[in-house]
């Protein structure tokens, strides 16, 4: 099971299944020290690994980065 | 990027960036290879509770300390007990250096194992180092080699974490 941060990259690389977590690069599981979110991401992905998803399934976790615009700036190559 | 390209969104941004870099480096040997279509990765049919799997962790940009990645494409194998460092040109590694669980959730996996939510961890973790624009060697050589090693380690679930 994979974590994916960008759906359109996953659609090219085609792992299976993949859990979409819209976090910034370098903070895949969550913010520094945010163990609750990190664990939620991890548990969500592991849980999906036990389910019979057909190949190509990208699972929406609804986990999103809301702290600032770091992710948006990264997606526009404006920030690391 | 041509109209109707398969690249869209951030994939289009990345493809454009790579194409521009390739053009600047065009005096050197070409690193582009013919694209081959790949299907979605198949998976085993094993289902059920998480309490027994032996998961292995694969990630990006992590390598044993204090070595530097040398393979092309760089791939690292390490024991979970080893100290690790991060190297990646695509994001600020300072954050993950302060809390490795953000990209390399080994401590969290240990926590889940200690609580019995998952089985024991596989003996090794693997890392495909950072930015790899030419993925052909990864698909044809490195990936299959790591898959064989994961089978040898008796891992029955692999968690892939990008960074």
Primary descriptors:
heterodimer; A: 80 residues; alpha/beta; three-stranded parallel beta sheet; 3 strands; 35% helix; flat; B: 163 residues; four-stranded mixed beta sheet; two-stranded antiparallel ribbon; 4 helices; 6 strands
Report on this structure:
The complex is a heterodimer of chains A (80) and B (163). A 3-stranded parallel beta sheet of chain A has the order 1-2-3, sandwiched between helices. Chain A has helices spanning 7-13, 35-49, 70-75; strands spanning 2-4, 18-22, 58-64. Chain A is α/β, with parallel strands linked by helices and 80 residues long. With 163 residues, chain B is an alpha/beta fold. Helices cover 29% and strands 15% of the residues of chain B. Chain B has helices spanning 9-24, 93-98, 106-114, 136-152; strands at residues 55-60, 62-64, 75-78, 84-86, 125-128, 157-161. Chain B has a 4-stranded mixed beta sheet with strand order 3-5-1-6, with helices on one face. Chain B has a two-stranded antiparallel sheet with strand order 2-4. The longest helix of chain B is centred in the C-terminal third of the chain and has 17 residues, at 136-152. Chain B is globular, with a radius of gyration of 18 Å. Chain B starts with 8 loop residues before the first helix and ends with a strand. The mean pLDDT of chain B is 77.
Brief digest:
The complex is a heterodimer of chains A (80) and B (163). With 80 residues, chain A is of the alpha/beta class.
Order of helices and strands of chain B: HEEEEHHEHE
Biggest sheet statistics of chain A: 3 strands, parallel
Q: Roughly what percent helix of chain A?
A: 25-40%
Helix content of chain B: 25-40%
Helix count of chain B? Answer: 4
Question: If strands are numbered along the chain, what order do they take across the biggest sheet of chain B?
Answer: 3-5-1-6
Shape of chain B: globular
Whole-number average pLDDT of chain B?
77
Order of strands, widest sheet of chain A? 1-2-3
Oligomer: heterodimer
Low-confidence stretches of chain A: none
Distance between the termini of chain A: 26 Å
Radius of gyration of chain B: 18 Å
- Stretches with pLDDT under 50, minimum 5 residues of chain B: none
Please report the distance between the alpha carbons of the first and last residues of chain B: 25 Å
């Amino acid at each position: 099971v994979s974590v994916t941060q960008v759906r359109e990259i996953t659609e090219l690389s085609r792992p299976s299944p993949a859990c979409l977590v819209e976090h910034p690069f370098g903070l895949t599981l969550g913010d520094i020290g945010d163990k609750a979110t990190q664990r939620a991401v991890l548990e969500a992905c592991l849980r999906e690994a036990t389910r019979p998803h057909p190949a190509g399934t990208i699972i929406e976790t609804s986990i999103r980065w809301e702290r600032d615009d770091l992710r948006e700036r990264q997606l526009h190559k404006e920030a690391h | 990027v041509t109209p109707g390209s398969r690249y869209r969104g951030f994939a289009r941004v990345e493809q454009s960036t790579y194409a521009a870099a390739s053009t600047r480096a065009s005096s050197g040997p070409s690193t582009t290879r013919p694209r081959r279509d790949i299907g979605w990765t198949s998976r085993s049919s094993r289902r059920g509770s998480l309490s027994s799997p032996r998961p292995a962790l694969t990630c990006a940009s992590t390598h044993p300390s204090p070595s530097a990645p040398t393979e092309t494409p760089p791939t690292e194998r390490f024991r979970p007990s080893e100290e690790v460092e991060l190297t990646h040109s695509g994001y600020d590694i300072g954050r993950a250096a302060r809390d490795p669980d953000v990209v390399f959730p080994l401590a969290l996996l240990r926590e889940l194992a200690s609580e019995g939510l998952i089985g024991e961890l596989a003996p090794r973790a693997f890392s495909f180092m950072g930015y790899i624009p030419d993925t052909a060697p990864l698909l044809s050589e490195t990936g299959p080699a790591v898959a064989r090693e994961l089978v040898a380690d008796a891992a029955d679930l692999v968690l892939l974490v990008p960074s």
